[in-house]
User: Which sequence fits this backbone?
């Protein structure tokens, strides 16, 4: 199973990172890797969603441990943190991460990932224009759902 290989690779990287940091290697921290890397590659999750998912699976873990572990995963390059508008931070796995941009629906909150070579052309042109070696970028498009009978809108629970 590809996920198993990916999870083990992520755990090795994290173990090395924690050793270099002089940080503790707790089972709870490694369980966060398990759950984050079991998600589909294009799924984004917040701390509360991860906490509930882990609790439902029988883990005894605190929200604080999840927050702290996700921060360490971002620092180690194993997770990417996104802040879309005024929403809570969302995380996605980064080990197989290929740069992409996002479209976020204002109504149903569905996040879609996309890549377009024209964006890289613009990035290169701006780099030349600004005499800068652009190393990264972030593009998020926000729109209003026009999908008739949108499944995500039906499933949306009010805050």
Assistant:
């Amino acid at each position: 199973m590809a996920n198993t290989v990916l999870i083990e690779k992520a755990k090795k990287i994290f173990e090395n990172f924690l050793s270099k940091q002089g940080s503790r290697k707790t089972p709870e921290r490694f369980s966060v890797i398990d759950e984050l890397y079991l998600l589909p590659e294009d799924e984004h999750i917040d701390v509360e969603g991860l906490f509930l998912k882990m609790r439902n699976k029988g883990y005894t873990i605190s929200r604080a441990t999840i927050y702290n572990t996700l921060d360490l995963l971002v620092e180690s390059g194993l997770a990417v943190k996104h802040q879309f508008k005024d929403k809570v931070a969302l995380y996605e796995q980064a080990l197989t991460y290929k740069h992409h941009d996002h479209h976020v629906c204002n109504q149903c909150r569905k996040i879609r990932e996309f890549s377009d070579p024209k964006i890289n052309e613009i990035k290169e042109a701006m780099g030349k224009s600004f005499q800068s070696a652009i190393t990264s970028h972030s593009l998020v498009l926000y729109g209003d759902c026009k999908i008739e009978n949108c499944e995500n809108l039906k499933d949306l629970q009010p805050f």
